[in-house]
Design goal:
329 residues; alpha+beta; Arc Repressor Mutant, subunit A; 4-stranded mixed sheet; 4-stranded antiparallel sheet
Length: 329
């Protein structure tokens, strides 16, 4: 009897060990199964914060049995929690395009090698499953809760939202999520663009808060793209305005310089010192073709006196020789 008991105990331990080797296992049921590959893929996921998207790297696949069973052993996983993706693919790209909008063929979840995650038979692919990973359960719970608020109504109560999320979301994340919900309401009412244009600094600072938080980048990708687009528009508009202002300023400067030079010239002409009676006589004699000596003889003055008169005439008339004087007459 003791030997029999030991044998059954051995079988029980063996069974338990075999089952525990599967970190992820379960069933896949599909309509039009001939359009799908007969295997389930496992990928490790990494989020790209800057782009607000994720990339997945396939690490294994499991062939489906006749009844749709698949399993991934724990050696494929690490001891710490990571995000994984289980997915099944259509047999062709053409089928993928047809089915992508109708069937969600993947599931994102958190797992480690010490966990046991099992997908139950369901009409919806990768829909109903059990998990002993606390982080994954809370994450799925949060995603379901957020889905309830995708289409917000006027009776949305932030306090109730905080109350319901208090158990599994940090206070700081709750605040950010409520702010995001408020921003979504603005966007639904076509008021977000205007508010970003009015308060760009607030939204830039808020986006930095989101990026440094533990929130899934997908939750704020739309805001990030919209903010970048509006800021680019504002920068382009400011640049165009700056070009116009600079152009107008240059034209104004040219106009002022022209006016200044014209005024200076007119002022110079107006303030010209008149010739004396004797200088006028000397000027007329020069214009008539007389030489300096002939002018001195005619006026009964010395030659040096004539030269002095001529020098004064040139200075007052702003000329430098007889030729210019003849032209000026």
């Amino acid at each position: 009897m003791k030997k029999l008991y030991t044998f059954f105990l051995f079988l029980l331990v063996l069974n338990t060990n075999l089952f525990s080797q599967h970190t992820i296992s379960g069933y896949v049921s599909l309509d039009n199964s001939e359009q799908w590959e007969k295997r389930v893929y496992l990928s490790k996921v990494s989020f790209e914060k800057n782009k607000g998207t994720y990339t997945s790297n396939t690490i294994a696949f499991s062939e489906l049995t006749k009844d749709g069973f698949f399993a991934f052993d724990n050696h494929l996983f690490t001891t710490k929690d990571d995000i994984y993706k289980v997915h099944i693919n259509p047999i062709s790209l053409e089928e993928k395009k047809k089915l992508s909008d109708k069937v969600k063929n993947f599931k994102l979840l958190i797992a480690s090698k010490k966990d046991t995650i099992h997908f139950k038979k369901s009409k919806i692919v990768f829909n109903d499953y059990t998990s002993n990973n606390t982080a994954d359960r809370e994450w799925q719970k949060l995603k379901k809760f957020q889905a309830r608020y995708e289409n917000l109504t006027s009776d949305f109560d932030p306090k109730q939202y905080l109350l319901e999320t208090k158990g599994y979301v940090k206070d700081s994340l709750q605040i950010l999520l409520v702010k995001l919900i408020g921003i979504k309401r603005l966007d639904d009412q076509d008021l977000l663009d205007k508010d970003i244009q009015t308060n760009p600094d607030y939204y830039i600072e808020f986006l930095e808060e989101l990026k440094s938080s533990e929130l899934d980048p997908i939750t704020y990708t739309h805001l990030e793209h919209k903010l970048a687009f509006i800021i680019q528009q504002q920068t382009s508009q400011k640049y165009r305005i700056s070009l116009w202002i600079n152009g107008i300023a240059i034209l104004v400067i040219i106009l002022l310089v022209t006016i200044l030079l014209s005024s200076k010239h007119k002022l110079k002409n107006k303030t010209q010192i008149p010739l004396s009676k004797q200088e006028t006589i000397v000027k007329d004699l020069i214009v008539s073709g007389k030489s300096n000596k002939e002018i001195a003889n005619e006026l009964f003055v010395s030659l040096s006196t004539v030269k002095t008169h001529i020098s004064n005439i040139y200075s007052k008339l702003n000329i430098s020789n007889r030729k210019e004087l003849l032209l000026k007459k």
